[in-house]
């Protein structure tokens, strides 16, 4: 960037149904992990801002929880509300759709809500295009474009990075002039303690079977900086029942050791320092009804 070039900045909300690849896409834009990822739906529980720099422009991506049709539990309702709140805060909206799934019930709800709000100029991002035959992809694109709310369509693979440079260039080109909202070397607004807890929760998702992860949350209880530059991190994995505690621990503690080892390895890579990670598993039946947890996540308890 030269002195004569004005700075640009835009907030872009990344909307989509659960498991559409939103977090993978935001991580790809930023160039490092700021939002956790797993093959399971509802991995992202709160809004995460990831910052991408390109020349004189700063694009702040708001990674939102997946929006789904039927949100019954308090946490689910709060997650969906957070997603729409992220949309309200943004300069531009970007709807990410799993091209292999197409227009499922959750995506239909999102499109209909955007139409009812008279939204226009939405960027349509068809993700996972490597999993779809070209003829089906073109038919899906035509069907979606006929909805009347999309300004541009991009076909990408967030996992491989195919197509994301063109998408970023479009966002940079349309970003309004204005000051950057984050320092140039900052990649996210997520506090390190929360990011560390989320990374461990990701490893829980990846190590345990389908249902159990949704009954689990992780909190960083202690963060001690050591004179040698390393960090001691103590975290508690909260479950709702004692039977779940035994599953997390695994036979002879094998499962919790596996979770801890993979979490520690990624934390050391992200923080570029040695990590001493200590995990504890505690039963707390009503953790999902604790207002303080919603406040820590930036979620509205009273939705």
Descriptive report:
The protein is globular. Strand 5 (122-127), helix 4 (134-145) and strand 6 (150-155) form a beta-alpha-beta unit. It has 9 helices and 9 strands. The chain has helices spanning 22-30, 74-88, 105-116, 134-145, 164-174, 192-207, 242-249, 254-271, 291-297; strands spanning 8-16, 48-54, 57-63, 92-98, 122-127, 150-155, 217-225, 231-239, 275-283. 36% of the residues lie in helices and 23% in strands. Strands 2-3-1-4-5-6 form a 6-stranded mixed sheet, with helices on both faces. The chain folds into 2 domains: 8-174, 3-Layer(aba) Sandwich (Rossmann fold); 192-297, GMP Synthetase, Chain A, domain 3. Helix 6 (192-207) crosses helix 8. By secondary structure, it is α/β, with parallel strands linked by helices.
Query: What kind of assembly state do the chains in view correspond to?
Result: single chain
Looking at CATH, the homologous superfamily of the largest domain is: P-loop containing nucleotide triphosphate hydrolases
Assigned CATH architecture of the largest domain: 3-Layer(aba) Sandwich
Radius of gyration: 20 Å
Largest sheet: 6 strands, mixed
N-to-C series of helices and strands = EHEEHEHEHEHHEEHHEH
Low-confidence spans: none
Number of domains: 2
Name the helicity range.
25-40%
- Terminal Cα span: 44 Å
Mean pLDDT: 92
CATH class of the largest domain: Alpha Beta
Number of strands: 9
- Approximate strand percentage: 15-25%
Binding site for GTP: 16-23, 63-67, 127-130
Function: An essential GTPase that binds both GDP and GTP, with rapid nucleotide exchange. Plays a role in 16S rRNA processing and 30S ribosomal subunit biogenesis and possibly also in cell cycle regulation and energy metabolism.
Region (G2): 42-46
Protein name: GTPase Era
């Amino acid at each position: 960037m030269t002195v004569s070039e004005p700075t640009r900045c835009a907030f872009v909300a990344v909307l989509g149904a659960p498991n559409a690849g939103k977090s993978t896409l935001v991580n790809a834009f930023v160039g490092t992990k700021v939002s956790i990822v797993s093959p399971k739906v509802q991995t992202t529980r709160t809004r995460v801002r990831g910052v991408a720099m390109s020349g004189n422009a700063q694009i702040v991506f708001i990674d939102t929880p997946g929006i789904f049709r039927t949100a019954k539990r308090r946490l689910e309702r709060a997650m969906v509300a957070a997603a729409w709140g992220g949309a309200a805060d943004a300069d531009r909206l970007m709807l990410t759709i799993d091209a292999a799934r197409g227009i499922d019930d959750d995506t239909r709800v999102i499109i209909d809500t955007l139409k009812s709000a008279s939204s226009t100029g939405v960027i349509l991002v068809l993700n996972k295009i490597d999993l779809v035959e070209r003829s089906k992809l073109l038919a899906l694109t035509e069907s979606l474009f006929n909805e009347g709310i999309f300004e541009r369509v991009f076909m990408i693979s967030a996992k491989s990075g195919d197509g994301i440079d063109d998408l970023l260039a479009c966002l940079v080109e349309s970003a309004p002039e204005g000051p950057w909202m984050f320092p140039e070397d900052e990649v996210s607004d997520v506090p390190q303690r929360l990011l560390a807890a989320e990374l461990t929760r990701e490893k829980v998702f990846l190590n345990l079977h389908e249902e159990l992860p949704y009954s689990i949350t992780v909190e960083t209880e202690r963060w001690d900086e050591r004179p040698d530059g390393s960090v001691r991190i103590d975290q508690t994995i909260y479950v709702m029942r004692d039977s779940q505690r035994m599953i997390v621990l695994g036979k002879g503690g094998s499962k919790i050791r596996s979770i801890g080892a993979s979490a520690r390895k990624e934390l050391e890579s992200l923080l570029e320092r040695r990590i001493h990670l200590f995990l504890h598993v505690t039963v707390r039946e009503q953790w999902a009804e604790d207002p303080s947890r919603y406040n820590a996540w930036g979620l509205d308890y009273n939705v």
